[in-house]
């Protein structure tokens, strides 16, 4: 028991940079108090002391603002940050090293008996205000964005955002590396194509970068073929991209990026 309490305290330090010392954690972290009181309530529930278990759970809710049904099963190093407004249903199952922020609901969508609440596997992180509703599984290492409403399974390692919750497709590492290389080549700030942004404009820019990469490769192949035939056409420099040409159609940061990535065009009076 004391070993698990020590683990719980250490998990606070690992996941909350605001924690300064053990005494502060013991006194001022309601999420920690809710987890410890739940263990007492769950033991009573398993021992068939149902009413007493519910009383302990109710006292915990009154003290911490966190409602965990005594029937819920919770793993090791479970961390609740802030915690106010969290609700965890009776048949919910939570793995090891899971993190919940305030306002999270692990709820059900049916009044039928049996499994009706979600299962969170190891290492899941659920953002503030998210609602995970139904008897499905959120895979290990998955993330649920703040205020998302998730009603379907989330694959391991994936990220779910929005209402209703949708999975953000993450490009493979090789594709992402090609996009970043092309973005740097044309002087574009690659923050616009981050996989963490479920933005249709960002996706469109990513597709344009893929297309530019393919065109660039095809042109290089044509240049090699022409050089092999004795032509010096490909030795010519590419036209200069001038920042003023993009004024009004690109943000100032992008104009600056183009200006830095390309030399200034020669002027008539130079």
Automatic annotation (TrEMBL):
Query: Organism source for this protein?
Result: Geopseudomonas sagittaria
Q: Which GO terms describe its biological process?
A: cysteine biosynthetic process from serine
Q: Which reaction does it catalyse?
A: L-serine + acetyl-CoA = O-acetyl-L-serine + CoA
- Compartment(s) of residence: Cytoplasm
Tree of life domain: Bacteria
Identification of the protein by name:
serine O-acetyltransferase
**What EC number(s) does the entry state?**
2.3.1.30
Q: Which GO terms describe its cellular component?
A: cytoplasm
């Amino acid at each position: 028991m004391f070993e698990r309490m020590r683990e719980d305290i250490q998990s606070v330090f690992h996941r909350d940079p605001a924690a300064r010392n053990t005494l502060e954690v013991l006194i001022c972290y309601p999420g920690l108090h809710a987890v410890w009181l739940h263990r007492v309530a769950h033991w009573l529930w398993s021992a068939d002391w149902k009413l007493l278990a519910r009383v302990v759970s109710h006292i915990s809710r009154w003290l911490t603002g966190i409602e965990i049904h005594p029937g819920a099963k919770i793993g090791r190093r479970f961390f609740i940050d802030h915690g106010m407004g969290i609700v965890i249903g009776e048949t919910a199952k939570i793995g090891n090293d899971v993190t919940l922020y305030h306002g999270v609901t692990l709820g059900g969508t049916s009044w039928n008996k049996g499994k009706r609440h979600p299962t969170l596997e190891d290492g899941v992180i659920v953002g503030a205000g998210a609602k995970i509703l139904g008897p499905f599984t959120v895979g290990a290492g998955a993330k649920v964005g703040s205020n998302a409403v998730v009603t379907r399974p989330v694959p391991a390692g994936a990220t779910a955002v929005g209402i209703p919750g949708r999975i953000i497709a993450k490009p493979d590492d090789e594709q992402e590396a090609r996009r970043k290389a092309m973005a740097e080549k044309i002087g574009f700030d690659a923050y616009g194509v981050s996989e963490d942004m479920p933005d249709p404009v960002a996706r469109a820019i990513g597709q344009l970068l893929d297309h530019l990469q393919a065109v660039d490769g095809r042109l290089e192949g044509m240049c090699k073929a022409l050089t092999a035939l004795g032509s010096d056409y490909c030795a010519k420099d590419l036209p200069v991209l001038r920042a003023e040409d993009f004024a009004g159609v690109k943000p100032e940061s992008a104009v600056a990026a183009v200006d830095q990535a390309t030399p200034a065009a020669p002027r008539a009076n130079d």
